[in-house]
């Protein structure tokens, strides 16, 4: 407010010369709502679009590996192209009701190794979803997230939006038998996530793009146990941050997408973990 008042006074003093100088508009933050988000039976998720996808490709739903209907994958396990008829409730932009039900044809990818992610291929294309429901998929950012970025964690399960910033990145996040790498840490307060928010898209509040997928929080202050992740640095030092939440980056999903929105783990540069041979 002070800066704007000073600007008005300066313009008055200097006169018409400054009036001829075109104003530079500040970047307008994205209006983040529930558009593109879905509710699963046990988690949250979102309809996402990799950078290489086209309108007529079958759409993808992003959630967590630990949200799979078959249960949590074992450490080292990677699931690819497994048939699925799972359904997802597509939310209205205000999150108060459902626009309709989307259905999966298969799990194209799922793991809790290095990351915690699941990707479902739907029976509908991006164009069909937009035509029928007026909803555009959320774009997957194709670059690493940046510390300090304002973010929104949009939970379709609870119909709630959490707001905080990217605090930083964790070398390794350990929870029970699972290890995740380069995890996003949330700032406090604002993103004290709860059960059911798992799989929520983490959206850059400036661009509206998905930068991560929400996955865990240290609930009880315990060290490296289930629901109590701990941070482990490159030297092996362990740190516990009670009530701090975390997410898994999603930019590198783009490195594995072929034309037709196909996940190709053998693609040059693909960074998603591969099944053990």
UniProtKB/TrEMBL annotation:
Gene3D superfamilies: Trypsin-like serine proteases (2.40.10.10). The keyword Signal applies. This is Secreted protein. Keywords: Signal. Transmembrane segments: none annotated. Residues 1-19 form the signal peptide.
């Amino acid at each position: 407010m002070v800066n704007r008042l000073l600007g008005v006074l300066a313009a008055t003093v200097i006169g018409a010369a400054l009036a001829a100088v075109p104003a530079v508009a500040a970047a307008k933050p994205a209006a983040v709502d529930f558009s593109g988000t879905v509710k699963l039976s046990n988690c949250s998720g979102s309809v996402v679009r990799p950078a290489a996808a086209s309108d007529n490709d079958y759409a993808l739903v992003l959630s967590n590996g630990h949200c799979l209907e078959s249960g949590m994958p074992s450490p080292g396990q990677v699931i690819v192209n497994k048939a699925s008829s799972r359904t997802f409730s597509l939310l209205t932009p205000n999150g108060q009701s459902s626009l309709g039900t989307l259905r999966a044809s298969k799990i194209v990818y799922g793991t809790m190794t290095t990351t915690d992610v699941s990707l479902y291929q739907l029976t509908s294309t991006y164009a069909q979803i937009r035509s029928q429901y007026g909803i555009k998929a959320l774009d997957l950012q194709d670059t690493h997230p940046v510390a300090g970025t304002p973010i929104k964690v949009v939970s379709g399960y609870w119909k709630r939006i959490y707001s905080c910033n990217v605090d930083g990145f964790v070398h390794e996040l350990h929870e029970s038998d699972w290890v995740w790498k380069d995890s996003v840490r949330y700032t406090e307060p604002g993103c004290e996530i709860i059960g059911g928010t798992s799989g929520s898209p983490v959206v850059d509040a400036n661009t509206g793009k998905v930068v991560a997928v929400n996955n865990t929080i240290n609930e009880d202050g315990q060290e490296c146990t289930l629901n109590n992740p701990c941070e482990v640095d490159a030297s092996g030092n362990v740190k516990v941050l009670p009530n701090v939440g975390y997410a898994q980056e999603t930019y590198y999903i783009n490195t594995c997408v072929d034309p037709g929105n196909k996940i190709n783990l053998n693609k040059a540069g693909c960074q998603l973990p591969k099944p053990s041979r």
